[in-house]
Amino acid sequence: MSDRIAEVPEAAGDFAPVEPHVTIVDVAREAEVSIRTVSRVLNGEKYVGEKMRARVQQVIDRMAFVPSAAARALPSARTYAVGLIFQRLSANYLFDIQLAALEACRGFGYQLVVEELGPQALASQAGIRQAVKALRVDVAVLLPPLCDNDFLLDALDECGIRYTRLAPARQQDRSSAMTMDDAAATGEMVHHLVELGHRRLGFVAGHPDHASAQNRLQAFWDSVDECGLQRSDIVVGQGDYSYDSGVRAAQAMLSGPRRPTAIFASNDLMAAGAIAAAGELGMITPRDLSVCGFDDSPISRHIWPPLTTVRQPLTEMARCAVEQLLSSKQRKAIGFDFTLIKRASTTRPPDL
After folding, report:
1. pLDDT the model gives residue 69
2. pLDDT for 216
3. What is the pLDDT of residue 352?
4. What pLDDT, on the 0 to 100 scale, is given for residue 113?
5. Which residues of the chain are modeled with pLDDT < 50?
6. SS3 for the chain, per residue?
7. Helices 24-31 and 35-43 sit at what angle, rounded to 10 degrees?
8. DSSP-derived pairing of the beta strands 309-311 and 339-341
9. Looking at residue 231, what is its pLDDT?
10. 1-78: what fold?
């Protein structure tokens, strides 16, 4: 056995020592006040004189103290958390909203809690109440279709959790809401197709349980009548906002006796499915079939051809929703403009 002892190399001199984490105790000691006083300053509470508040804040700034949400919540019932509550959404749809909400939360020193309510929780009023009571949030942002769930809204009201709703399809005056005129956006897309020369249209409706899907379908029929199209030249397929449902609906339309020259899907994911279905039948988009969608989600720019769609400013709506909940100045409802994005997936019909 060797008698040699392995030598441990000395630490390189250019490594800076780890800075100790500044705590609320450190701030209180430096400012010569109680921990409770520092907490009151951080939480914007009363009972602290202006001179004392300024002195404590000066120490907080000098020591670059950043309180954690958990530590701030200890002296009170507040959690310093915003809940983003959703029900089975596509990853692309949810990701952009989540990033925008997270950015807004950081600006107020809050955390974002992303919570999905599944079928079991939504199966009964009791399940919804239990799910709401389990939430550890101060306020909540509700995404479609939960924003139109009356039982959920009632449960949040009972628990005293303030909320705002993203794109509710009904009862928009019940709470703070971020809205967009879905009917006008749907109508503008129909007019775009008609201006290109299309008369035989197909429409892929969204999930039948979603109020927004019903509103878009009704707006589509209203626009068909407004443009003077014959309803006998229109075919509607049922989807559920998924890619596969778009494939199935388009296959049925394109294999039937009233083949449309353009398909309008009520979200981008189903529109992408329609393009795939057309390709399987040997049709080229847009030469043989124009396709358009709704939302301007990432997939609309990543598929070929890129998708003509309605841009719904979801990230701006999510950011504003958080700011409304956490700001002292709150408004009942805020309307956002839509934009018709014309890309390569729509053109004149092949028979013109």
Report:
1. 56
2. 95
3. 59
4. 93
5. 1-19
6. CCCCCCCCCCCCCCCCCCCCCCCHHHHHHHHCCCHHHHHHHHHCCCCCCHHHHHHHHHHHHHCCCCCCHHHHHCCCCCCCEEEEEECCCCHHHHHHHHHHHHHHHHHHCCEEEEEECCHHHHCCHHHHHHHHHHCCCCEEEECCCHHHCHHHHHHHHHHCCEEEEECCCCCCCCCEEEEECHHHHHHHHHHHHHHHCCCCEEEEECCCCCHHHHHHHHHHHHHHHHCCCCHHHCEEEECCCCHHHHHHHHHHHHHCCCCCCEEEECCHHHHHHHHHHHHHCCCCCCCCCEEECCECCCHHHHCCCCCEEEECCHHHHHHHHHHHHHCCCCCCEEEECCEEECCCCCCCCCCC
7. 110
8. antiparallel
9. 96
10. 434 Repressor (Amino-terminal Domain) (1.10.260)
pLDDT at 77: 62
The CATH number for 81-180+315-336, chosen from 3.40.1160.10, 3.30.300.30, 3.40.50.2300, 3.40.50.12780, is: 3.40.50.2300
Residue 226 is predicted with a pLDDT of 96
Helices 50-62 and 24-31, packing angle to 10 deg: 120
Which CATH number fits the domain 182-313, given the four candidates 1.20.200.10, 3.40.50.970, 3.90.1310.10, 3.40.50.2300? 3.40.50.2300
Euclidean distance between CA atoms 216 and 18, whole angstroms? 57
Q: What is the pLDDT of residues 33-82, one digit of tens each?
A: 887 788 778 777 667 888 888 998 999 888 887 765 555 555 556 788 99
Q: What is the pLDDT of residue 114?
A: 93
pLDDT of the residue at 46: 64
Query: For the range 208-213, what are the long-range contacts, defined as Cβ-Cβ under 8 Å and sequence gap of 24 or more?
Result: 208/238, 208/240, 209/145, 210/144, 210/145, 210/148, 210/169, 210/241, 211/145, 211/148, 211/168, 211/169, 211/170, 212/144, 212/145, 212/148, 212/167, 212/169, 212/182, 213/241, 213/266
